[in-house]
Model the fold of this input.
Amino acid sequence: MPFNRDIWVFDLDNTLYPASANLFALMDIKMGEYVAQIEGVDLIEAKRIQKAYFRDYGTTLSGLMARHSIDPNHYLDYVHDIDLDVLTADPELAASIDALPGRKLVFTNADSDYGQRVLDRLGLGHCFEAMFDIRDANFVPKPEAAPYDAFCTRHDVDPARAIMFEDMARNLAPAKAIGMGTVWINNGSEQAVHLEDASHIDHETDALAPWLADHIIALRSAA
Done:
């Protein structure tokens, strides 16, 4: 795929920071606690239910909303109330994103309050035009098709001019289907490391910042 793109769409968690930060482990504990409270089960059974919800509904939140009609805002506030001290500023990534020609946006299944906290910790708070979060998607998560359409409509994104960066390969399939270029950040955060069909992935790397640094000259010259 030639670099004839000038709209840069970034996932948040495990994409704009390394999966080794393991923030999801902290959120995973909170999600398990929440499921245990709602389901009235112990934490071991709650973990099994939580993983089933993620598999079947895309996110634990979607499963809880479908099965228990919970208040999604209460859930989001609870699971994202975590310590972000493990994150540090990433000036290399900030410089690379700043150098990209065109528009830069964040498209996340998280909520924007948490997302902005993460961006600020990484020193990326100034890098993006806007963030499209789970509330903007009416609580319908990636990889459902609807939030991709809503994202493009909300932010006037022509998919043919966009390239999306994601650590979850399955979340790139709908992006590719509507015409976006795709880059999979294969950093181990996604359990399914073997893909039966990788046709929706244009590029693959194990880390975002080095990939952008390596490609920045080509990206700029082709814009």
Summary: Residues 23-79 form a domain with the DNA polymerase; domain 1 fold (CATH 1.10.150). The two ends are 13 Å apart (CA to CA).
